[in-house]
Amino acid sequence: MGFGTKASAMVCGGLIVCAAWTGCGAREHDHQRTGTPKPSSALASTAERTVMIVSGERFEAVVHCPTPSLANGWGVLLIGGGLGNDLDWVTPGMIHLEGGARRVTITGDPHADAPVISADLAGRGFVVVRWSTIAIDDPLAGEWPVRSTPRTPEDLLEQCRAALALLRGVRGVRAERIALVGHSLGAARAFTIAAEDDLVCGVVALSPAYFTPETPLLASFVRAGMRHGLDVAAARGLPVLALFGTLDRSRVVDAAGSRAMKDSGAVEGLDVVCLNGLGHQLGPQEGDLFGPIDPGAVDHIGRWLERLAGRE
After folding, report:
1. In CATH, which superfamily holds the domain spanning 4-309?
2. How far apart are CA 311 and CA 308, in angstroms?
């Protein structure tokens, strides 16, 4: 989602490596039949930029609010993937490395996924917050995604906590009506936050990394206190949507294991959905080239969160 996971794979030592996808069994969905986001969503909300301060550094954030007539009192925090992300989860069309340029997207044009998700959720009544993990004053900020100042897992978790506090401070958001939406490693961070914050009511895990115990956590993640998503979901009885694409070949994304756990009934409130023809970023994928998030995937996120909000 955006360029976070791709950047970590290319720039941060191959964190996400590829293997053959093992399949999701009978719960696969054709993304072309899942519907599309509400057409009025972009018109029924406003987006305002702000700055949050974490450990003395300034980070840009966006607060996306629904019109008052649609507001449902719920807040959603978007947590980008990889070892960092920009404000809009942009996937650049091309990146320039030593030795030449490399195409990243299918068309060669950039795309941004976070504004699409934010606008759809705000159109459904949710307040949405997202942020850039790259400090405004980072001397390497202009070189993202090829280079930026490295962030530790602890740094990124501290940013998540600050962004969650920002979300809870938005007028109309009730502290106990919070959901997290995390992509890839951002999903792993989401579950870590949910484990320590009992007021988090649900998690949408997009192509979640380290979701099942079958994918051992890196030592640095363990030191940071990160946990497998399924362990957190089981311990808390937390409602979870785990959304996968059938073209996803990331070794730390275990769609088959997640589906098996769902079928076993061992984790209450777990919903596992696999979307045909989509890749790690839940859009079209051709080899290592990505397309923007599919409208059907965005709709799955929104409809599940609407059901979550309706359970109270």
Report:
1. Alpha/Beta hydrolase fold, catalytic domain (3.40.50.1820)
2. 5
Q: Using alpha carbons only, how large is the chain's radius of gyration in Å?
A: 18
CA pair distance 105, 50, nearest whole angstrom: 29
Q: What percent of the chain is predicted at pLDDT more than 70?
A: 86
Residue 98 CA: distances (Å) to CA of 16, 102, 126: 21, 10, 43
Mean residue pLDDT of the chain comes to: 87
Sign of CA dihedral 121, 127, 132, 137: positive
Domain ranges in the chain?
4-309
> Residue 46 — left, alpha, or beta (φ > 0 → left; ψ -120 to 50 → alpha)?
beta
Comparison of pLDDT for 311 and 308, the residue scoring more:
308
Range 22-30 average pLDDT: 36
Cα 295 to Cα 187: distance, rounded to the nearest angstrom: 20
Q: What is the pLDDT of residues 145-193, one digit of tens each?
A: 888 899 999 999 999 999 999 999 999 999 999 999 999 999 999 999 9
Q: Of 299, 300, 306, 236, whose CA–CA distance to 271 is shortest?
A: 300
| Phi, psi dihedral angles at 107 (to 5 degrees) | -90, -15
Residue 20: per-residue pLDDT: 25
More confident residue, 195 or 3: 195
Strands 240-245 and 270-276: parallel
Closest CA relative to residue 75, chosen from 174, 199, 161, 163:
174
> Could you tell me the two tokens for 282?
């839940």
Q: Which residue has the tokens 């290319």?
A: 10
C-alpha neighbours within 13 Å on the C-beta side of residue 24? 27
Partners of 95 in the β-ladder: 102
CA angle 224, 18, 91 (to 5 degrees): 75
User: 61 has which bridge partners?
Assistant: 50, 131
Where are any strands of DSSP class E within 164-282?
178-183, 200-206, 240-245, 270-276
